[in-house]
Design brief:
By secondary structure, the chain is an alpha+beta fold. Helices cover 40% and strands 17% of the residues. The chain has a two-stranded antiparallel ribbon.
Length: 162
């Protein structure tokens, strides 16, 4: 059973027309008027149709207002801080780029290399700090005793130890 919200009048044997009450539409006043069709909730708000009106449900506590258009103080503060960090990062990157470009212009256009002297000094220090390779010295005895007498000396030492 359908519920009609409006008043219908018979215009002929086969036709009729209905006058719908506020908030209803259709041939038989069977559908509610959707007020969200022409309404846009801002900041990802969700529109909910009501009878004769609409309501925007704002997500979280960051936004408020009829269409979620008002930003909270906390969100405004976060936006300012993030923009400040971005500004500082961009300035740092630009400063570094200008420094490198200036050094390149000095070196390739004017023949001035401010780093060349430092490189030469560090190369000299590295060469000075290099250690000389180790030499293995093997002594050769010129007047060495014969092998037999050396063995006798060792056996004599062993005998005295025991």
């Amino acid at each position: 059973m359908m519920k009609f919200i409006g008043t219908c009048y018979k215009t002929s044997n086969r036709t009729f027309s209905c006058e719908c009450t506020s908030g209803w539409q259709g041939k038989h006043c069977e559908t509610k008027v959707n007020y969200c069709e022409n309404t846009m909730c801002l900041n990802n708000g969700v529109c909910q149709p009501l009878l004769l009106n609409y309501s925007c449900q704002c997500l979280g506590n960051s936004y408020s207002g009829r269409n979620c258009e008002t930003t909270s103080n906390q969100m405004t503060l976060f936006k300012i801080i993030s923009k400040s960090f971005a500004f500082v990062a961009i300035i740092a990157i630009l400063t570094l780029a200008i420094f490198i470009i200036t050094l390149d212009i000095l070196k390739y256009c004017f023949g001035i290399d401010p780093i060349d002297r430092e490189l030469q000094l560090t190369k000299c220090n590295i060469q000075k700090k290099k250690k000389k390779p180790m030499k293995i010295i093997r002594f050769i005895y010129i007047n060495a005793p014969p092998k037999d007498s050396l063995e006798q000396t060792i056996s004599t030492i062993e005998e005295t130890i025991i």
